């Protein structure tokens, strides 16, 4: 009898991510600190929110910043996309868990559901997760890797904790749901009884609670002096030639 041959298969090429999870490029801390020092020096206020963090993160890893309506793929590098979140904490380096506002999941819009109080808690929870899962699936059709990068910031932006995690679909069978005293719906992991989700019926805000990994990157920043406005304007040669002024209804007369 002839020896049975093993079929030869084509090797499937898997596109690797730009860098391993939570292993940011070696120059990432330097670039991020530089961006934050510039922000503090020019803005004069320790304020860093959503879109600005997205743009800064994209700059620091050499990615493209392209804000999206979904909010899960605002930063793109090769086959990887990120959603970017900011959270404030008094001591970022010691933070154990964080709450991430993760969009609006509306069963009223997606399923035509009304009277949430009369719907079984677990049935409603499954609908909420299915909306999230559909959103994630749609993005994963175009990006092989999907992550969320989180910036935990101190009140004065002098201490930061940065980490990322895989943006995943959640198996509804692994969670149970119950209403709290405020009538918000809370989702718990069956195995650990850990609180994972919160959903607010008024506004449909969906929040995911994440553990902060032990290997998150901590950066402490020396607060710079605020840039002197008048000195800066003088340095760039600002004068009356930098602007024009006119009344809207008189524009035609000014141009003739």
In short:
This protein has 6 helices and 11 strands. It is of the alpha+beta class and 256 residues long. The strands form 2 sheets. Strands 1-2-3-5-6-11 form a 6-stranded mixed sheet.
Q: How is this structure best described in words?
A:
This protein is 25% helix and 25% strand. The termini are far apart. The chain has 6 helices and 11 strands. Strand 9 and strand 10 (205-211) form a beta hairpin. Helix 1 packs across helix 2 (50-61). With 256 residues, the chain is an alpha+beta fold. The longest helix is centred in the middle third of the chain and has 20 residues, at 121-140. It is globular. The chain has one domain (28-243): ECO RV Endonuclease, Chain A, CATH 3.40.600.
Could you give the topology of this structure?
Layout lengths: L27 H16 L6 H12 L2 E2 L9 E3 L2 E9 L8 E8 L2 H5 L9 H20 L4 E9 L5 E8 L8 E5 L5 E5 L5 E5 L5 E7 L5 E4 L8 H7 L15 H5 L1
Parallel strand pairs: 3-5
Antiparallel strand pairs: 1-2, 2-3, 4-10, 5-6, 6-11, 7-8, 8-9, 9-10
- Number of self-contained structural domains: 1
Helix-strand pattern: HHEEEEHHEEEEEEEHH
Total DSSP E strands: 11
Whole-angstrom Rg: 24 Å
**Strands of the biggest beta sheet: in what spatial order?**
1-2-3-5-6-11
Strand % is 25-35%
Mean pLDDT over the full residue set: 92
The helix content is 25-40%
Q: Which structural class fits the helix and strand makeup?
A: alpha+beta
The CATH architecture name reads 3-Layer(aba) Sandwich
Which keywords apply here?
alpha+beta, ECO RV Endonuclease, Chain A, 256 residues, 25% strand, six-stranded mixed β-sheet, globular, five-stranded antiparallel β-sheet, single chain
């Amino acid at each position: 009898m002839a020896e049975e041959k093993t079929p030869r298969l084509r090797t499937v090429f898997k596109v690797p991510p730009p860098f391993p999870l939570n292993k940011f490029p070696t120059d990432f801390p330097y670039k991020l600190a530089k961006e934050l020092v510039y922000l503090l020096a020019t803005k004069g206020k320790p304020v860093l929110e959503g879109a600005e963090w997205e743009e800064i993160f994209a700059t620091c890893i050499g990615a493209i910043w392209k804000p999206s309506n979904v909010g899960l793929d605002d930063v793109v590098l090769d086959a990887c996309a990120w959603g970017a979140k900011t959270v404030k904490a008094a001591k970022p380096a010691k933070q154990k868990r964080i709450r991430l506002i993760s969009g609006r999941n509306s069963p009223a819009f997606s399923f035509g559901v009304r009277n949430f109080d009369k719907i079984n808690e677990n049935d409603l929870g499954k609908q909420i997760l299915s909306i999230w899962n559909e959103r994630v699936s749609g993005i994963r059709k175009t990006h092989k890797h999907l992550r969320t990068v989180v910036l935990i910031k101190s009140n004065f932006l002098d201490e930061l904790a940065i980490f990322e995690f895989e943006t995943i679909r959640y198996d509804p069978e692994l969670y149970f749901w119950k209403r709290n005293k405020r009538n918000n719906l809370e989702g718990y992991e069956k195995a650990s009884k850990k609180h994972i989700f919160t959903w607010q019926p008024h506004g449909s805000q969906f929040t995911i609670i994440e553990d902060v990994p032990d290997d998150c990157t901590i950066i402490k920043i020396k607060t710079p002096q605020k840039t002197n406005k008048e000195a800066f304007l003088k340095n760039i040669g600002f004068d009356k030639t930098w602007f024009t002024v006119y009344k809207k209804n008189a524009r035609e007369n000014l141009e003739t």
